[in-house]
Amino acid sequence: MNTVSFTPAVATLTYERVVEQIEKAITSGSIVPGDHLPSERELMVQFSVSRPTIREALRVLQSMGLIESKPGGRGGPKVLEPSPATLARSFTTMARLEALSMDDLVPFRLVLDSAACRLAAALHTPEQLQRMESGIVRMEAAVGTDAEAFARADVEFHEAVWEASGNALVSLCGQAVSGAIFDLISQQLKDSPDSTRTEADSAALDRGIFEAIAARDAVEAGRLARQAIYDRYSDLLPTGGVLGLDALLG
Description:
Residues 12-82 form the HTH gntR-type domain. The protein is an all-alpha fold. It has helices spanning 14-27, 40-47, 51-63, 84-96, 102-123, 126-142, 147-164, 168-191, 195-214, 218-233, 239-249, and strands at 67-68, 78-79.
């Protein structure tokens, strides 16, 4: 077990001070993924706080995706590898609670997808291209038959594009918003008076993007990605949001 030690927490907002120290130890590399924190009792002694305070701090750290606690496990909580899944949950929760609106998500996705498609056109590997095409084929097969499968295949196609961008931050942001995007697509299909037509149009747009990426035409891939987002979602935005999309469409 790692031998890192902690100093007593101050009385004000005690559990937050505990969280702050443990988070700093993890992000600085003093504790690395795979290490275990000390037991609850040891943490109580090091921080000079009560068991409920330690448990609240550990609960927060777990919700942040920094540690994993398993009942009956040996040692203290395990430090986890960084993962986009935690950020994805935050984006999805914020979208569902309307802390992130369509005005936030749609322009962000337009910028993200355009950049990712341009990079993917230049940098993709044959294996990544195959994954993209697999997503497109599944989308086309689900048109008019399974809206949830269609939405998931759509996200899978874009996940393959984000990965093919070769940019870790683009991929991270893409994965982080994928849950919110899935909800967005599902709701759009649910609200559509002709969901089959909406699905067919969406699949055709993504097929065009795929073909531009396959041809390594970065300019066309980026243009089609921007146009696809505009065509899909501009009708769902208020006037101000549409004006913002117009500026990005350029």
